[in-house]
Automatic annotation (TrEMBL):
Family, similarity comment: Belongs to the cytochrome P450 family.
One term under GO cellular component: endoplasmic reticulum membrane
Organism: Nephila pilipes
Taxonomy, superkingdom: Eukaryota
GO molecular function, one term: heme binding
PANTHER family for the chain: CYTOCHROME P450 4C3-RELATED, CYTOCHROME P450 FAMILY 4
Name under which the protein is recorded: Cytochrome P450 4C1
Keywords of this entry: Endoplasmic reticulum, Heme, Iron, Membrane, Metal-binding, Monooxygenase, Oxidoreductase
Cofactor: heme
Coiled coil region boundaries: none
UniProt subcellular location: Endoplasmic reticulum membrane
Pfam families: p450
Length: 223
């Protein structure tokens, strides 16, 4: 699931393919998991809060090494996307900023493309600045997405009636052609599935710890 989430984040937000589900770039996922493990190890041991103590421990050394690996992966993603944009600008009439060209139709850009365009216009916004933004998006995005997907599938598996209703909704949308690509219009029609996902990932199993709430009366989630 982590590999699937990483592919989704990279393709949708970064505009690049990392093919994690094909076994490529798995070192990044391992680094992220070990960073999280080291962080949680440190959180419950207050004597490791000072950096000058933590960095000399085995967990601290592993944490530093994995941070380097994660940063290296982000830099590689940025480098590949930047090269792609420069090649496109050099060998076509689109240019670096296609949406500013009146002869070309506007298209929706990936998050990384927007950052790189700003970098090209203002070099004071460096690649390291971009890397920090990408790290936040990639690290937080792929891990929480994988967790949310896992819990959603678990909840659907535990509730066959709800799973059946979600399946019927998808059958209506795709009819006999379930091999075609999903469109934005398809997603807007997935009303029941969206409700199921929100109940699971936002109310029952949120990716981030939040304060529990108590309702004074029963709440009906599904008809």
């Amino acid at each position: 699931m982590s590999a699937c989430a990483l592919d989704i984040i990279c393709e949708t937000a970064m505009g690049v393919s990392v093919n994690a589900q094909d076994g490529q770039n798995i070192e990044y996922m391992k680094a992220v998991h070990e960073i999280t493990d080291s962080f949680m190890y440190r959180v419950i041991r207050p004597w490791l809060y000072p950096d000058f103590i933590f960095k000399w421990t085995a967990y601290g050394k592993r944490f530093t090494a994995n941070i380097r690996r994660a940063h290296a992966f982000s830099r590689k993603v940025i480098k590949n996307k930047k090269l792609e944009m420069e090649v496109r600008s050099k060998y076509s009439d689109v240019g670096l900023f296609p949406n500013e060209n009146p002869s070309h139709s506007r298209k929706q850009k990936a998050f990384l493309e927007l950052l790189l365009e700003y970098h090209f216009k203002d070099p004071s916004f460096t690649e390291e600045d971009i890397r920090e933004e990408v790290d936040t998006f990639m690290f937080a995005g792929h891990d929480t997405t994988a967790m949310s997907l896992s819990w959603t599938l678990y909840c659907l598996g535990q509730n066959p009636k709800i799973q059946q209703k979600a399946q019927e909704e998808l059958d209506q949308i795709f009819e006999d052609d379930n091999s075609r690509d999903i469109t934005r219009e398809d997603i807007t029609r997935m009303i029941y599935l969206e409700c199921a996902i929100k109940v699971c990932k936002l109310r029952l199993h949120p990716a981030e710890m939040i304060e529990n709430t108590r309702h004074g009366s029963p709440v009906r989630c599904f008809n």
